[in-house]
Amino acid sequence: DAGVIQSPRHEVTEMGQEVTLRCKPISGHDYLFWYRQTMMRGLELLIYFNNNVPIDDSGMPEDRFSAKMPNASFSTLKIQPSEPRDSAVYFCASSSVYGSPLHFGNGTRLTVT
Amino acid sequence: DAKTTQPTSMDCAEGRAANLPCNHSTISGNEYVYWYRQIHSQGPQYIIHGLKNNETNEMASLIITEDRKSSTLILPHATLRDTAVYYCIGNNQGAQKLVFGQGTRLTINP
Q1: What is the mean pLDDT of residues A88-104?
Q2: In sequence order, what are the beta bridge partners of A50?
Q3: What's residue B101's pLDDT?
Q4: Which of A21, A53, B78, B102 has the fewest CB atoms found within 10 Å of its own CB?
């Protein structure tokens, strides 16, 4: 089991550019989560999916952020256009059943200049 | 979900037991206590969770007070690799939304 895989590990981009973060959950897991971590705000839940369907996106900061899960093995988080305040580490996590522990990836460190 | 309170930081000597406290005085009857840790530059890692009985696994033990207003995570023989931020979370296991606080930064000293 390779765990949750995120790519890229690091992303540096200029303000106004589109950014796409990718996540491959653990095979067989039905839930997928996107979190963001900054020094100021800590770990924040952005959105989570169940069986590829978005369940709660109340944590998505604004319309510039969008997340998709086209199939059970892949999800993307897109920021368009990106802004310097989006700089953070973005984590993807998955879990197998309702209430089971979350397994996190190692994150994507995004820097927007 | 219950609000939790943890010390900002703690130190422990290598080889000794590390006891990390957590207050969750507003926890409701159906809320579990979860512990995760985050080692530098990695994603959070699940450690253990419990409802009202004490729990033990290969990583740690969780002691929950009888009134469930507080709990203690015990790492029985701390190693340098246990240096991390430890998060205590009160959560309704029926909900998938884990809300992380600021956690306790545990430093294991040689």
Answers
A1: 91
A2: A31, A53
A3: 86
A4: A53
A86: pLDDT strictly greater than 70: yes
Q: How far is CA A20 from CA A12, A81, A110, in A?
A: 12, 11, 10
* Neighbouring-strand partners of residue A49: A32, A54
Pairing of strands B104-109, B9-13: parallel
C-alpha angle A96/A92/B24, rounded to 5°?
A: 75
Inform me whether the C-beta atom of residue A33 falls under 8 Å from chain B C-beta atoms.
yes
Distance from CA of B48 to the nearest CA of A (A): 9
- State the average pLDDT over residues A39-57: 93
pLDDT of residue B93: 52
**Separation of CA B17 from chain center:** 14
Q: Which of B89, B84, B91 is CA-nearest to residue B38?
A: B84
Percent residues over pLDDT 90 in chain B? 72
pLDDT at B95: 56
Q: Is B108 helix (H, G, I), strand (E, B) or coil?
A: strand
Q: Which of B72, B48, B71 is nearest to B58 (CA)?
A: B48
Task: Tell whether A99 is within 8 A of chain B (Cβ).
Answer: yes
